[in-house]
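Encode chain A's predicted structure.
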Amino acid sequence: METVYLKTLVETVATGNLSRAADGLCITPSTASRRIKFLEDHYGYSLLDRTGSALVPTEAGKLVVDKAAAILALENDLLTGLKNMEQCDGIFFCCTNSFGIAHLPQIFAEFMASNPDTAKLKFNFDQPDNIVKGLRECCYNLAVFEHCIHCECFGSDEFTTYSLPNDEAVFVSSPALSINAPKLTVDELFKYNLYGQNEGSCASKFLATNLRSLGRSVTEFNNHIIVDDLHMIINAVLAGNGIACISKGVVEKHLNSGRLVQHHVDGFVHARKRTLFTDLSKKLNPSTESLKKCILDYFQS
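Encoded structure for chain A:
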């Protein structure tokens, strides 16, 4: 028997309603009803009491639901085990956009130079909360992200961690805006357009936390323009359309060439902790171990 039938029964009992169960399973109520009918015909018992306002299990239904929950838990363990087997020979790496843009190309070039035959590489960019979720669900065996201020989304005993040099978040502007002072008050920046990523991004959380510590808000900028693409943000700032608070490593070449100017703000914490994560309970395969070494060596050189 396909487990979707058991899932449908478990969801129906949990919600007490076929329509809500169907919504949760992304099927129609009639499909959910047919699945329940199939189970009742298969086992020869009525599994749901339909006399009240909510659907509740009969005595036979309670037994089937209990056993179904155990079967579904075993299936989930099986799928997790298969996913772990799939990852044994591959590299599944995730990092934030800023780390990927600023550092990953050089790290990856060094890695491929010493591991030319490596196959099955998967590289993703995501936000810290999602990266931690992916590590917990065994989607990644190696990850790097910058931390938001006073914010931890993982337990200290969940992963093996390696501290990397801090990231530095700075405000940047085009020389065309004539904001020449390296250190400013936040009031001096509020008169400009601010380009930033969506509120869920690490950079936005970092900026919002800094502003809150000063009793201020991003709403005080002349305009707050949300752009999810970091390259578009950089191009807008290069064109003199506004300013951005961004990882210094992402715009290092523009700062060095003089196309952008960096600014620190009085009262801001500009340093962000950065960490490399691996699974606490599993030994890394040789190729992933090699990538980990490349990342650590990159920051020690």
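Residues 3-86 form a domain with the Arc Repressor Mutant, subunit A fold (CATH 1.10.10.10).
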